[in-house]
Design goal:
The protein has about 325 residues and is α/β, with parallel strands linked by helices. It has helices spanning about 15-20, 35-45, 75-80, 105-115, 140-145, 160-165, 195-205, 220-225, 260-270, 290-300, 315-320; strands at about 5-10, 30, 55-60, 85, 125-130, 155, 175-180, 190-195, 215, 245, 280-285, 310. Strands 2-6-5-3-4 form a five-stranded parallel sheet, with helices on both faces. It has a five-stranded parallel sheet with strand order 8-12-11-9-10. The protein starts with 5 loop residues before the first strand and ends in a 12-residue tail after the last helix.
């Protein structure tokens, strides 16, 4: 089962005009502080009986398949979470027909996932990561919700600080979720880079007259250079021609594991040689931490949002689809 909760039908009486058109207090930024979320939850709690728009904390914790402690997102959600939070399973809300992990679901499947989570289109959703990782997979879920046009979505910066600040948590079995009917949205394909698009960029790398699209790679330097293996067995490491390696950890504070301030984020991208006037495609292993870079670009207001995309399949798709004769997997000696 993809989503956590005991489900029951949402009563029609809850679908009032206020629920469709009302508004809760808006956050000032895409990134939300623990204090801001705590105050918002007191004013607009995720009550199943409320017909007003609510603030919904959504846990998107996820760990790499080679995690040495064998942790799962659901494990840490049950162990400790924000009160009344719901759990988004990044391994289940995907395109299940694709051979590549974490590819975007269809609009119909996304709506079904939101319905099962009891999330309404008018709700403000604040997504957060595990205490252990700070920022990792939540930006992917936030980006997914943006792709499908959810009006009010934010990222908590972050759950580690939430706990350190002594804000409330709960643990154990989950509470009952009222299942709803989320409308089937349209996908904003302009936010998504396909294999074919990225291949064309890589083929044109360093060619005179090329558009100059920049590919950012959020994986570790070892994986990017080809000196360290990929976490998925049998997958070659290395990088796309012309790509710029910016490990996602470079945009996070090493102590708090929260996003750096906007001015520091600009420094990271500028130092790496990223040109904000040119299009940017963010990539990683499976499209998860690419969204950490995209969120950092958004927070730093670095590059035009209309010219930024995320490569959905990222390296896992790339390494399996390019042909050896094309020399599109490069390494550093």
């Amino acid at each position: 089962m993809a989503l956590v909760g005991v489900l029951s039908p949402l009563r029609a009486s809850m679908r009032s005009t206020a629920a469709r058109t009302g508004a809760v207090r808006s956050f000032s930024s895409y990134l939300v502080t623990p204090k801001e979320l705590h105050e918002a939850l007191k004013k607009a709690p995720p009550s199943p009986i409320s017909s007003e728009p609510r603030v919904i904390p959504l846990c998107a914790s996820w760990f790499l398949p080679n995690d040495p402690q064998k942790r799962t997102g659901l494990d840490v959600f049950i162990e400790k979470r924000i009160p009344k939070a719901r759990f988004f399973d990044l391994d289940k809300v995907i395109d299940k027909r694709s051979p590549y992990p974490h590819m975007l679901p269809s609009s119909k499947d996304f709506a079904a996932a939101m319905s099962e989570l009891g999330i309404r289109r008018e709700d403000t959703v604040v997504i957060y990561d595990s205490q252990e990782l700070g920022i990792f997979s939540a930006p992917r879920v936030g980006w997914t919700m943006k792709v499908f046009g959810h009006p009010k979505v934010h990222i908590l910066n972050n759950f580690k600080l939430w706990i350190e600040e002594g804000l409330p948590t709960e643990s154990g079995n989950v509470w009952t979720i009222e299942c709803g009917t989320y409308p089937i949205p349209e996908m904003d394909e302009d936010k998504v880079a396909s294999f074919e698009e990225v291949r064309e960029v890589a083929m044109d790398s360093n060619k005179e007259g090329a558009e100059g699209v920049q590919i950012l790679d959020a994986r570790s330097p070892g994986r990017w250079s080809g000196k360290e293996p990929e976490p998925r067995e049998g997958l070659s490491s290395g990088h796309m021609p012309g790509s710029i390696n910016i490990p996602f950890s470079a945009v996070l504070d090493p102590n708090t594991k929260a996003f750096l301030p906007a001015d520091k984020l600009k420094e990271v991208f500028t130092k790496a040689g990223v040109d904000p006037s040119k299009p940017i495609i963010s990539s990683c292993g499976t499209g998860v931490t690419a969204c950490v870079l995209e969120t950092a670009l958004n927070e730093a207001q670095f590059g035009s949002p209309e010219k930024r995309k995320v490569y959905d399949g990222s390296w896992t798709e790339w390494a399996q689809r390019v042909k050896p004769s094309e020399s599109l997997i490069q390494t550093v000696e």
